[in-house]
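Module 6 notes. Inverse folding takes a fixed backbone as the condition and produces residue identities as the prediction. Think of it as a translation problem where the source language is geometry and the target language is the twenty amino acids. Below is one complete input and output pair. Work through it position by position during the lab.
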């Protein structure tokens, strides 16, 4: 799941925002472009104005070689065929939607110099062209682990067997979900220097009886400072700061009887959680920051049934 920054300050739903329109479908006809439930987060968009509407293109998974004869990569000779790009395309789609729905998020993306984010903004502004797939091929072959296979007629096959989490780590390395800082209170301790660890996405465990009821509590507890014993017989303070740009959250499902044993099991063996989209919290709060849900990624596992197996990804 991806949450993008909505606003700074406390978020309060007023009576106006919670209002619902009553209508009788037999006697009244609702306009095709009207909201029955007002969405306060998109108030700057006038859906009755054609200039406010954006049709987002969809990246085709892999390569259709007959249609994309000019698809090339800088570090590979000849023409390139990509395979299994759904993880890359799904993450790109979520960020694309966030970029269009949130002015705050769009401003932050526009002020960054990141090739992956630049690819997304160019798709939104100029659409998908043959050069778009060449840029995607460059990103995948340069930053991700791909299997290269030479084919006939100077054609190269690049197999991108990866996960959405790996795409986030490689493509958004400079934009983590949170930064964890460790510092010892004893200035003479050799561990007294600040040690920072980038957390690309948070992992939230759920079970059958409790899905997302505790997600807000999990976020609130995750940023609390912790003290641990240092190697020099002193104490280290561990603090976590959430990103002011976006939050990526990985939902890890354990059955209730196995929840206490989850630390003894490999996370790669976790089952895939099945949920309704309406049950996912729309808003998460962090002190003076408000995050809104922008999209969800679902994963259909491969034959091995492991979380890191190559399956298929979908964006909602």
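Target side of the pair, the amino acids:
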């Amino acid at each position: 799941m991806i949450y993008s920054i909505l606003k700074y300050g406390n978020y309060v739903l007023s009576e106006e925002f919670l209002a619902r329109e009553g209508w009788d479908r037999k006697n009244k006809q609702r306009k095709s472009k009207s909201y029955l439930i007002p969405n306060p987060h998109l108030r700057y968009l006038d859906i009755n104005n054609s200039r406010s509407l954006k049709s987002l293109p969809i990246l085709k998974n892999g390569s259709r070689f007959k249609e994309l004869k000019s698809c090339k990569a800088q570090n590979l000779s000849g023409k390139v065929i990509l395979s299994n790009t759904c993880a890359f395309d799904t993450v790109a789609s979520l960020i694309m939607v966030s970029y269009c729905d949130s002015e705050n998020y769009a401003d932050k993306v526009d002020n960054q110099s990141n090739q992956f984010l630049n690819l997304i903004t160019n798709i939104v502004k100029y659409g998908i062209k043959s050069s778009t797939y060449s840029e995607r091929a460059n990103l995948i072959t340069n930053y991700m682990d791909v299997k290269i296979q030479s084919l006939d007629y100077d054609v190269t096959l690049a197999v991108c067997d990866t996960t959405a989490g790996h795409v986030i780590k490689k493509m958004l390395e400079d934009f983590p979900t949170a930064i964890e800082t460790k510092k010892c209170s004893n200035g003479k301790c050799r561990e007294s220097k600040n040690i920072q660890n980038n957390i690309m996405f948070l992992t939230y465990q759920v079970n059958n009886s409790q899905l997302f009821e505790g997600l807000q509590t999990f976020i609130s507890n995750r940023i609390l400072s912790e003290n641990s014993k240092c190697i020099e017989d002193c104490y280290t303070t561990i603090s976590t700061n959430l990103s002011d740009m976006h939050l990526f959250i990985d939902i890890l499902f354990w059955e209730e009887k196995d929840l206490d044993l989850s630390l003894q099991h490999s996370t790669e063996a976790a089952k895939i959680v099945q949920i309704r989209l309406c049950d996912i919290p729309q808003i998460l709060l962090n002190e003076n920051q408000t995050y809104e849900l922008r999209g969800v990624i679902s994963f259909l596992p491969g034959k091995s049934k492991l979380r890191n197996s190559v399956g298929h990804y979908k964006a909602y």
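Reference fact for the lab report: DSSP finds six helices and 14 strands in the chain.
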